[in-house]
Specification:
Layout: E1 2-12, E2 17-26, E3 29-34, E4 44-47, E5 52-55, E6 57-62, H1 75-85, E7 87-92, H2 103-116, E8 120-123, H3 139-145, H4 160-173, E9 177-179, E10 192-193, H5 196-201, E11 205-206, H6 208-225, E12 229-231, H7 237-248, E13 253-257, H8 260-263, H9 285-297, E14 302-303, H10 312-315, H11 332-341, H12 348-355, H13 357-363, E15 378-388, E16 407-417, E17 420-422
Helix pairs in contact: 2-3, 4-6, 6-7, 7-9
Length: about 425
C-alpha cells in the first residue's frame, strides 16, 4: 500500500525539515519526503494543502484509568481522545487498580491497546508496591514486560532513603524515573495554590515551595545516583530555575509542562470551580510566564497533558472534596498553538519538537521522526482552524475541563498510526 500526503508543509525537527513537501508512505512506513509534486506512484493520495504534516505527537503523561476505573476512562476512549487531539503515542501512569506494579498488569495494558489500535500505548511502571512509598517494585520485571519508565506520580515518595534506592535501581537498569514533586508536609489539607485566590475562597493553600523543595531534593539524589530524572508537570518559576541550574551542571534531568500551567492561573478556581482543581495546582501569572520562557529556551524539554479524567459525580461536589485533575488530550495542541506559537513565543517547528523528538529522547522511544524506514505515525495539523472547546463533544468518557467555551486556534486534522488513517470519531 502506497499513500501520498500531498501539498502540505512538512515539519520534522529530527531532520531539520520545515518546508513544503509531499510525504510518501509505503506499507506502514515512511518511504521518503519528496519535493512538492514530485512524481510518485501511489494507491492513495491525500490532499493536505494548507495543513502541516509532522511526526506523530507523543504524550508521556496520561491517565487511562484502566484497569479499575473504567467509569472515568478506559484504554479505548483514552486512545480515541488521543487520536482526536493529535497524539499517536501515549504513556499511561500506574495509578490504576491494581496499580501497574507487576509485569502481568503491564502486559495486559499493552495487549489491550494493541487490540484497540488507535494509538500506541506505553505503560509506566510504579516505583513502589501499590504506590505506597515503601517496598520497591521489581523494576527489571516491569522493564522486561514493556514499561518505558518508572513513577509513583501523584503519590510522591516522601522518604529520601527510599527515593535514593529507587533511583539506584533505575540508574542500574537505565530506566527514566518520572517524579511528581511535592513535600506533603507543606500541602496536607491544601486544595489549590497558596495565595490571594485561596484566601478569597477560604481554602487551605499549597505553597510553591512544596514543589521546589521536593525538586531540589530529587535533583540532588539524581546527582549522586546517576539516575535519569524527569520532572513531571512543572508548575512554579522556582522549579524552572532549578531545572535550568541542573542542566547547566550537566545532570541528566529533564522536565515537562502541561498547557493548563501556562494558560490558567489560580483565579480559575474562583467560584469554587472544581474543573480547575489539579495537583500541582494552578499558580500565578509569574509562574505561567516562567514556564512559557522555559519551554521556549529549551529548559523545559517537552509538553505533556497529565490527562486525568474524573466522572461528573466526583467533580460536582464541594471544592475540598473534589479530586485533582482535568482532561488534556483534546485541548493540548490548540492551547499550545494559541498561547505559544500565535503570539510569537516560539516557532511552530520548535513546538513540534516539544511534542515529538524531545519526549521520544527522554524515554528512549523509537518514534518522533519521519526518517525513511520509521513507522508512519503522523500528525496532520490545521494551524489556522479556530474552534471552541465543547465538553459535550470530547471523546473521553469524562468531561472535566476548565476550557469549556474557550476559543482556540489550531487543532489536529487527523492522525495516522502505522500508515493507517485514524479518522476523527464523533463524540458519544
Amino acid at each position: 500500500m502506497r499513500t501520498l500526503l500531498a501539498g502540505g508543509r512538512v515539519i520534522d525537527p529530527s531532520q531539520g525539515i520545515d518546508r513544503p513537501a509531499d510525504l510518501l508512505i509505503v506499507n506502514g512506513k515512511v518511504e521518503a519526503v519528496l519535493q512538492p509534486g514530485e512524481d510518485a506512484a501511489s494507491d492513495e493520495r491525500l490532499d493536505v494543502t494548507g495543513l502541516t504534516v509532522c511526526p506523530g505527537f507523543i504524550d508521556i503523561h496520561v491517565h487511562l484509568r484502566e484497569p479499575g476505573f473504567e467509569y472515568k476512562e478506559d484504554i479505548e476512549s483514552g486512545s480515541a481522545a488521543a487520536a482526536a487531539g493529535g497524539f499517536t503515542r501515549i504513556c499511561c501512569m500506574p495509578n490504576t487498580n491494581p496499580a501497574i506494579d507487576t509485569a502481568s498488569v503491564c502486559r495486559h495494558i499493552i495487549e489491550r491497546a494493541a487490540g484497540v489500535g488507535k494509538a500506541h500505548v506505553h505503560p509506566i511502571g510504579a516505583a513502589t508496591r501499590g504506590m505506597e512509598g515503601e517496598r520497591l517494585t521489581e523494576i527489571n520485571d516491569l522493564k522486561s514486560a514493556g514499561a518505558v519508565a518508572i513513577s509513583d506520580d501523584a503519590f510522591p515518595i516522601q522518604n529520601a532513603r527510599t527515593m535514593r534506592s529507587v533511583m539506584q535501581y533505575c540508574a542500574m537498569l537505565n530506566m527514566p524515573l518520572m517524579t511528581h514533586n511535592e513535600e506533603k508536609e507543606l500541602t496536607t489539607g491544601g486544595s489549590m495554590n497558596e495565595g490571594a485566590a485561596a484566601t478569597v475562597l477560604g481554602l487551605a493553600g499549597m505553597p510553591p515551595a512544596a514543589e521546589d523543595i521536593a525538586v531540589a531534593r530529587n535533583i540532588m539524589l539524581a546527582a549522586i545516583t546517576g539516575c535519569r530524572l524527569h520532572l513531571l508537570h512543572i508548575s512554579t518559576a522556582g522549579t524552572v530555575e532549578l531545572l535550568r541550574n541542573a542542566k547547566e551542571k550537566g545532570l541528566a534531568v529533564t522536565g515537562e509542562a502541561c498547557p493548563h500551567h501556562w494558560a490558567l492561573t489560580d483565579e480559575a478556581c474562583l467560584g469554587f470551580n472544581t474543573d480547575a482543581k489539579m495537583n500541582p495546582p494552578l499558580r500565578t501569572t509569574e509562574d505561567c510566564e516562567a514556564i512559557m520562557r522555559g519551554l521556549a529556551d529549551g529548559t523545559i524539554d517537552c509538553i505533556s497533558t497529565d490527562h486525568a479524567p474524573h466522572a461528573p459525580h466526583e467533580k460536582e461536589v464541594e471544592f475540598d472534596a473534589a479530586p485533582f485533575g482535568i482532561l488534556g488530550l483534546e485541548t493540548a495542541v490548540g492551547l499550545a498553538i494559541t498561547h505559544l506559537v500565535a503570539p510569537g513565543r516560539m516557532t511552530l517547528s520548535t513546538l513540534v519538537a516539544r511534542f515529538t523528538t524531545e519526549p521520544s529522547r527522554i524515554l528512549g522511544l523509537s518514534a518522533g521522526t519521519l526518517r525513511p524506514g520509521a513507522a508512519a505515525d503522523i500528525t496532520v495539523l490545521d494551524t489556522q482552524a479556530a474552534w471552541q472547546v465543547d465538553r459535550a463533544a470530547v471523546r473521553s468518557r469524562s468531561s472535566n475541563t476548565p476550557f469549556h467555551g474557550a476559543t482556540l486556534k489550531g487543532r489536529a486534522a487527523f492522525t495516522m498510526v502505522n500508515g493507517v488513517r485514524i479518522a476523527p470519531e464523533p463524540a458519544t
